């Protein structure tokens, strides 16, 4: 049955190649189709595994954008590990080992790492935030701390703009104010006040240099323009009521908001909260699109949990897939626009805490609180080794038929 | 992808019955049916998977255990089932191992079994499919790192793992044998020469010591010179008319000086010994030669051949202590070693032949030297020589006697009655340490006093015996007596025989009036009363029931492949009535001509019994108490009734029946109709599932039941009443007017 499906896939691909040769499909359409196919075929990669380096939960992971080669992970035990994802890529069965690490005993974090992020333009630097109320900037080559910001509060997340050149780190901490750290000076520039509770997530817009979104335990999601003195642009309202944009009654979720993500084109914002709901906001109007993602989502833990939006827009035009880690140890894959559940990825034995996307190979990396980092990759259609054949065959004994 | 409704129905009922049976082992026929249906189409496999997952989520460990077993069966076989289960593997582990804070439901015993089974399954599946199904590998890792499960000493549960283990073991033994073989081969190459040398040495010793047949001088020395010892005793019997052969060929096989007598022509022709001259070779005589067992070769160690003997002893010791076991070991190893595996084969054959040759020659040399009187006992010279030397140095003294002499001057005569070790003299009041006392010379021992009557009896017996032989009875009175004696019952002697024919019996015939201290003077009749006489004629007889000598084993084929070894009189509590079975435990039927033939599969009388037995066992294993669900009485056939009753009471009845005792009627409670109770008893438990809704019995509940029962309350009430009355009595007693 499975083999039939594989054959079917191959036939389909061959057919599209033929169509491409004949000029019946445009190359970009073909590419989108092919990528779409790959994304929907994503499963747990049986041949690749990442070495179990953390002794505690893995809280956060990130893959750098420059080369899409290095993965960084931060653990609940305060340790940080760097992996080379291209390591032994040609091998049949590979185990990716940590190439560099910092432990708590070194000059690393005293508390659990809450978020790690690569510097968007260069993999020579990364930043980490921790529950020990600091944000550290690291030199990757030396694995040394280059700069430390002490925020005096538990830091849940931080963000750097992948577009802007201002070099500001926005921080989300137990302090209701969002403080901005300047990498150029190593000092704080200013604070954005407006939230009334712990800020659990911040994210820079990929479209506008100075646009920042943040979610907090006070159930609001706020958009900020950091240049303005009264910097809060609006507080998103779930009911799309006619109230003023900064009204006290506005709330994006009925309970705490712990995840915000922009779509890669910066036109939409996805938020998720402890009310087990994910919402899609149109940033042009600031309105709730009222997309219904169903009732499968479980999200009850107070930590930063960002939904992952596949960075490539696949056919039909400007349609994305969004991956949401659910507390029931699965990853839910939704169609961003119509909210339909495409796939449910199961296999993790721990709660999935963070997701990372590797664009080059269309792979997803997931971190779990069972100390493991899992690799999810498109099903390899030409994988036809003996082991697979063994697993594919039925072994009914003859005596069973009579 | 069409769903066959009928198949689906059967599948669901089958899975329900299998999982709800609550047995430790699944019913193989039902499992086979499930597999049969699942084999037909993948849709059926999917249905089975859904049903099994539903069953697995039941909050009852027995159901989960059975479901896990069935899942293991299907997982091994169906690819679709594997895909489905692997996708939900974490849920599977949640429900069977209890990961992610999902404790397994009661009963605890089955919960542990389920857990163990799931861990073993994960281990084996990981070994086989771990590289393809990542979820299983992850589950294995999770169990290993988070639950700290020890995967090292697991019992293989799937057939494949079991056979793999077996194969590995075989391979190991084979390799071990091969290694042993190689070692032995090298050793043989090394030592064969030594052994052969030793044997050659021994052979030359034999040649020196024992004269050969062709050595005329030696033979003449034997036959012409009369030997002083009577080692060779010749008996000459008058011969029959025909020529006789000395047919005992064995006697003259190895012995060099044994006379090989052939038919007379040959003797006449080759007569080197001059047998004729000695008047022995005549065909009229039969010559029997008896060899001395102790020294068949008739070679005595003397000053002349001492050196040779000592060499021989040395060699002999070497042979017995070293070479013989060595050669036997080699042979053993060579026999066990696989000929096919040994390279090259010619080498193996050569070694084997060498070993056999060596064994033969070593055995020969050993027996020859033993014939010469060289063995491990005479390692340092002949025995008699040894004792002579001892006598020179030490005087043999009776230590006991000398000690007693010193003490008393003379030794009292011991009671020299022949002891009977099997029968102690007084079994009931045996003196402690009597055995030790017997050794004490001062102890006279329990002498047996032979009573006069017994003596007389014995004399009479002997006389009767002689009279029976010599003079048969002739007169009339004796004839009637004989006749009566023939009819008379023979009973062992007891007190009643003294009075058995007495109509009346007098006591105190002295004529003196005796006055009893308490009873005073008698009524003067001095006759034993009839009642007493009657009582005196009674005899005590201890009833010893005749139990059957051989109690047959049940021999019911059990699921572990063995046969049930319980021995019961009539029926086994687990497997029902004991019937003749063959070596595989199949029931056999007695045919007309007295042979046993196996019973056909059709009249399966024990199918239900087997089920009931399994159920009983499962209950016993699960809780130790018989708190089973007796909810649904779906099956109440006559068979079911019979085997439900095959309980303790039945076995008791069997035993009573066999002993010829009456059946014990169970006490019925008042106010409860017998029919009602019967009905209740006849209900068959639908499954062996343990009722988990029932709270576990606590000691408090048990005590409450006792204390709160009506009878105990009544008795308490009674006691109180009695106390009250006695108190009031006391008060009245002590009241003075």
What does this structure look like?
The complex is a heterodimer of chains A (402) and B (737). By secondary structure, chain A is mostly beta strands. Chain A folds into 2 domains: 1-41 and 380-402; 44-379, Methylamine Dehydrogenase, Chain H (7 Propeller), CATH 2.130.10. Helix content of chain A is 10%, strand content 40%. In chain A, the strands form 8 sheets. Chain A has a 4-stranded antiparallel β-sheet. A 4-stranded antiparallel β-sheet of chain A has the order 3-4-5-7, with no helix packed on it. In chain A, strands 8-9-10-11 form a 4-stranded antiparallel β-sheet, with no helix packed on it. Chain A is globular. Mean pLDDT of chain A is 85; it is low at 1-8. Chain B has 737 residues and is mainly α. Among the domains of chain B are: 5-157, Serine Threonine Protein Phosphatase 5, Tetratricopeptide repeat; 160-221 and 301-382, no CATH class; 549-596, no CATH class. Helix content of chain B is 52%, strand content 4%. Chain B has 25 helices and 8 strands. Chain B has a two-stranded antiparallel sheet with strand order 1-2. Chain B has a two-stranded antiparallel ribbon with strand order 3-4. In chain B, strands 5-6 form a two-stranded antiparallel sheet. In chain B, helix 3 (42-56) runs antiparallel to helix 4, helix 3 packs parallel to helix 5 (79-87) and helix 7 (108-129) packs across helix 8 (134-145). The N and C termini of chain B lie far apart (108 Å). Mean pLDDT of chain B is 71; it is low at 225-268, 384-392, 407-428, 465-471, 601-606, 622-645 and 669-683. The A-B interface holds A 1-2, 44-47, 49, 52, 93, 329, 346-350, 370-372, 374, 387-388, 390-397, 399-402 and B 32, 35-36, 39, 42, 76-80, 82-83, 87-90, 93, 99-100, 129, 131-135, 137-139, 141-142, 145-146. Chain B: GO terms for molecular function: RNA polymerase II complex binding; zinc ion binding. Chain B: It comes from Lobosporangium transversale. Chain B: Residues 233-269, 366-475, 625-645, 662-737 are annotated as: Disordered. Chain B: Belongs to the UVSSA family. Chain B: Its main location: nucleus. Chain A: WD repeats lie at residues 51-93, 106-148, 192-227, 250-291, 345-377.
């Amino acid at each position: 049955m499975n083999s039939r499906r594989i054959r079917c896939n191959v036939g389909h691909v061959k057919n599209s190649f033929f169509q491409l040769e004949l000029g019946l499909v445009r190359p970009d359409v073909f590419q989108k189709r092919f990528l779409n196919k790959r994304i929907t075929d994503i499963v747990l990669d049986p041949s690749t595994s990442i070495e179990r380096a953390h002794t505690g939960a893995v809280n956060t992971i990130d893959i750098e954008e420059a080369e899409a080669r290095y993965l960084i992970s931060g653990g609940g035990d305060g340790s940080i590990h760097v992996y080379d994802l291209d390591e032994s890529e040609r091998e049949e069965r590979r185990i990716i080992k940590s190439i560099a690490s910092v432990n708590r005993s070194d000059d690393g974090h005293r508390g659990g790492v809450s978020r790690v992020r690569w510097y968007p333009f260069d993999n020579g630097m990364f930043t980490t935030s921790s529950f020990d109320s600091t944000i550290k900037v690291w030199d990757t080559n030396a694995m040394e701390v280059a700069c430390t910001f002490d925020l005096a509060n538990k830091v849940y997340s931080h963000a750097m703009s992948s577009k802007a050149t201002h070099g500001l780190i926005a921080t989300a901490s137990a302090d209701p104010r969002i403080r901005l750290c300047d990498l150029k000076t190593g000092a704080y520039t200013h604070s954005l006040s407006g939230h009334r509770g712990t800020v659990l997530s911040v994210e820079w817009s990929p479209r506008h240099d100075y646009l920042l979104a943040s979610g907090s335990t006070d159930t609001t999601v706020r958009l900020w323009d950091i240049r303005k003195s009264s910097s809060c642009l609006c507080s998103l309202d779930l009911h799309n009521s006619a109230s003023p944009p900064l009204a006290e009654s506005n709330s994006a979720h009925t309970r705490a908001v712990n995840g915000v993500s922009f779509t890669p084109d910066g036109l939409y914002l996805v938020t998720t909260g402890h009310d087990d709901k994910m919402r899609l906001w149109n940033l042009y109007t600031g309105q709730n699109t009222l997309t219904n993602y169903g009732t499968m989502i479980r999200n009850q833990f107070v930590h930063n949990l960002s939904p992952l939006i596949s960075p490539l827009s696949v056919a039909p035009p400007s349609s994305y897939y969004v991956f949401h880690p659910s507390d029931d140890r699965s990853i839910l894959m939704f169609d961003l626009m119509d909210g339909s559940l495409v796939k449910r990825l199961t296999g993790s034995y721990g709660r999935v805490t963070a997701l990372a996307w590797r664009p080059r190979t269309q792979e997803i990396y997931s971190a779990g609180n069972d100390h493991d980092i899992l690799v999810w990759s498109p099903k390899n259609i030409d994988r036809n080794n003996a082991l697979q054949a063994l697993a594919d065959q039925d072994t009914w004994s003859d005596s069973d038929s009579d | 992808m069409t769903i066959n409704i009928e198949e689906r129905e059967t599948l669901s009922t089958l899975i329900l019955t299998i999982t709800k049976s609550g047995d430790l082992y699944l019913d193989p026929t039902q499992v086979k049916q499930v597999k049969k249906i699942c084999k037909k189409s993948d849709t059926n496999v999917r249905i089975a998977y859904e049903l099994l997952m539903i069953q697995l989520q039941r909050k009852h460990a027995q159901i989960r255990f059975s479901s896990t077993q069935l899942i293991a069966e299907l997982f091994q076989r169906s690819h679709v089932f594997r895909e489905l289960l692997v996708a939900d593997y974490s849920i599977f582990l949640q429900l069977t191992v209890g990961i992610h804070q999902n404790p397994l439901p009661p009963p605890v015993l089955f919960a542990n079994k389920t857990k163990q089974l799931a861990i073993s399954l994960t281990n084996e599946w990981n070994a086989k499919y771990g590289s393809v199904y990542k979820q299983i590998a992850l589950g294995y890792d999770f169990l290993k790192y988070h639950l700290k499960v020890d995967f090292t000493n697991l019992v293989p549960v799937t057939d494949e793992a079991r056979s793999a283990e077996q194969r590995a073991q075989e391979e190991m033994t084979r390799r071990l044998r091969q290694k042993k073989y190689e070692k032995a081969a090298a050793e043989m190459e090394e030592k064969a020469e030594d052994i052969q040398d030793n044997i050659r040495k021994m052979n030359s010793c034999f040649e020196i010591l024992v004269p050969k047949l062709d050595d005329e001088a030696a033979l003449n020395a034997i036959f012409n010179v009369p030997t002083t010892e009577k080692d060779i005793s010749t008996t000459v019997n008058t011969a029959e008319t025909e020529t006789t052969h000395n047919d005992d060929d064995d006697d003259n096989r190895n012995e060099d000086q044994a006379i090989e007598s052939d038919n007379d022509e040959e003797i006449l022709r080759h007569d080197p010994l001059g047998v004729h001259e000695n008047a022995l070779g005549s065909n009229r005589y039969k010559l029997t030669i008896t060899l001395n067992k102790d020294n068949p070769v008739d070679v005595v160690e003397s000053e002349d051949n001492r050196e040779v003997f000592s060499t021989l002893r040395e060699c002999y010791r070497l042979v017995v202590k070293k070479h013989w076991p060595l050669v036997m070991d080699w042979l053993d190893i060579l026999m066990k070693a696989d000929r096919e595996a040994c390279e090259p084969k010619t080498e193996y054959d050569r070694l084997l032949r060498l070993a056999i040759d060596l064994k033969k020659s070593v055995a020969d040399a050993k027996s020859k030297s033993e014939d010469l009187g060289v063995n491990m006992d005479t390692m340092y010279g002949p025995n008699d020589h040894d004792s002579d030397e001892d006598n020179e140095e030490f005087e043999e003294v009776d230590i006991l006697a000398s000690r007693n002499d010193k003490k008393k001057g003379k030794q009292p005569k011991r009671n020299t009655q022949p002891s009977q070790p099997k029968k102690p003299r007084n079994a009931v009041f045996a003196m402690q340490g009597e055995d030790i006392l017997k050794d004490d010379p001062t102890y006279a021992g329990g002498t047996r006093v032979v009573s006069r009557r017994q003596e007389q009896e014995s004399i009479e017996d002997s006389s009767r015996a002689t009279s029976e032989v010599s003079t048969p009875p002739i007169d009339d009175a004796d004839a009637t007596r004989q006749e009566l004696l023939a009819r008379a019952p023979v009973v062992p002697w007891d007190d009643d025989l003294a009075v058995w024919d007495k109509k009346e019996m007098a006591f105190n015939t002295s004529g003196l009036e005796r006055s009893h201290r308490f009873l005073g003077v008698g009524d003067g009749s001095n006759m034993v009363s009839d009642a007493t006489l009657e009582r005196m004629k009674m005899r005590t007889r201890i009833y010893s029931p005749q139990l059957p000598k051989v109690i047959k084993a049940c021999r019911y084929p059990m699921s572990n492949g063995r046969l049930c070894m319980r021995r019961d009189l009539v029926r086994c509590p687990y497997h029902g009535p004991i019937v003749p079975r063959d070596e595989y435990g199949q029931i056999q039927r007695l045919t007309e001509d007295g042979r046993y033939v196996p019973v056909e599969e059709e009249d399966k009388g024990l199918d239900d019994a087997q089920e009931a037995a399994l159920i009983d066992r499962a209950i016993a294993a699960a809780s130790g108490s018989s708190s089973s669900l007796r909810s649904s009485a779906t099956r109440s056939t006559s068979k079911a009734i019979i085997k439900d009753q095959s309980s303790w009471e039945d076995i008791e009845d069997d035993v009573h029946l066999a002993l010829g005792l009456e059946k014990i009627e169970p006490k019925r409670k008042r106010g409860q109709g017998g029919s009602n109770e019967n009905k209740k008893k006849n209900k068959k438990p639908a499954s062996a599932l343990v009722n988990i809704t029932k709270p576990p019995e606590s000691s408090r509940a048990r005590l409450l039941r006792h204390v709160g029962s009506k009878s105990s309350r009544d008795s308490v009430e009674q006691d109180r009443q009695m106390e009250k009355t006695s108190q009031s009595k006391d008060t009245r007693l002590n009241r003075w007017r």
